[in-house]
Amino acid sequence: MNIFKKTIFTVLVSLLLIGNVYADKVKVGTEGAYPPWNSKDASGNLVGFEVELANWLCIYAGHDCTIVEQDWDGMIPALLMRKFDLIMAGMSITAERQKTITFSQGYADEVAQLAVMKGSSLEGMDTPSGINLSLGGSDVKSALKTLTGALAGKTVCVQTATIHQNFLDSGDVGSVKVRTYKTQDEVNLDLAAGRCDAALAAAVAFTDYAEKSGKSVVLVGPTFSGGAFGNGVGIGIRQASDSAIGKRDAQLLKDFNAAIDTARKQGKISELAIKWFGFDASM
Questions:
Q1: Residue 89 near residue 75, CB atoms below 8 Å
Q2: Around Cβ 175, how many Cβ atoms within 10 Å?
Q3: Which phi and psi angles does 254 have, rounded to 5°?
C-alpha cells in the first residue's frame, strides 16, 4: 500500500471510529427548575434526583451521556426535533403524552397534592392519602367532591403544560380559576406572596420549597395519582421507526429499561430517592 492510499485508509478508519463514538453519545434533557427532581445549585450546575439517576442509568446502559437544560413547555417538541435523545424531567407517564412519545418503565412515583399558606381557610380540608384516580370507586368520588367544594371560587396556581394543569382543567373538580406559570419556582413565589389561594404540584416540590425557603407552606387535601396524573415518572423517548435513527431510539428504550432494572435491583433508585425526597419514591 503506497503512502497516499495508506493515508486515505487511516483517515477513513478514523472517521469511522469517530462516527461510532458519536453515535453512542446520548443527550438527556431536563428542566433544571423542578426541585428536588431537577434544579441548579448556586454555581449553576444541574443537580437533583433525576440528574444523579441519569448519570447512573447511563453508566448501567453503557452510554456516554450529557445532560442539557430545556424549558418545560418545550420539552417534548425539543425531543422530537432531536435536540436531545431522552427526557428525564419529572415527566409522568400519561396516555396523552404516549400519543406523541414513548416512555421507559417508571422509575419513581410522583404524588400530587394541593399546598396553601399556613392560616388559609383550606387548611382544615379532609386529607385522605393514596387516591388513585384510575381505580374509581367511592373514595375517588368523595375526594373529588371534597375538592370541588373547597376550591369553588378559589384561584389555584400551577405550572403550565403539566399533569396538574390538565387535572384542574378537566372539570373533575368543578370550574376552578387556574393561573399558570412557566416554572414551579414562580408558582411557589406567588403562593407565598398570597396571589394564589392554593397551588397544585408534586407534594415533594412544595416540601422542598418550604424547607429551603422557611415559608409556612402546608399540604392539604387528598394525595392523588393515576388517571390524569399518570402512572409514575419515566424516561421520555422518541417513538421507534424503521429508519436507522428510529432503530437507535428503539435500542435506547431497551438499554434504559434494562438500566432501570439494574438500578432498582441494586437499590440505587431507593438510595437517591431517600437522599433527595426524604423517602423511598422508587416504583
A1: yes
A2: 11
A3: -65, -45
Separation between Cα atoms, residue 251 and residue 245, nearest integer Å: 10
Q: In terms of C-beta density within 10 A (0-12 exposed, 13-18 middle, 19 or more buried), how is residue 199 classed?
A: buried
**Residue type for position 202:** A
pTM for the structure as a whole: 0.88
Name residues whose C-beta falls within 8 Å of residue 29's C-beta, 6 or more positions apart in sequence.
Answer: 67, 68, 69, 70, 75, 78, 79, 83, 84, 86, 87, 88, 89
> Residue 102: helix, strand or coil by DSSP?
strand
Using the predicted structure, report yes or no on whether residue 23 has a pLDDT greater than 50.
no
Helix axes 184-192, 203-213, angle to 10 degrees: 60
Which stretches within the chain are classed as H helix?
3-24, 49-61, 75-80, 138-151, 163-169, 184-192, 203-213, 244-265, 268-277
The predicted-structure confidence for 127-166, as pLDDT tens digits, reads as follows: 777 899 999 999 999 999 999 999 999 999 999 999 999 9
DSSP state, residue 153: T
For 41-77, write each residue's pLDDT tens digit.
999 999 999 999 999 999 999 999 999 999 999 999 9
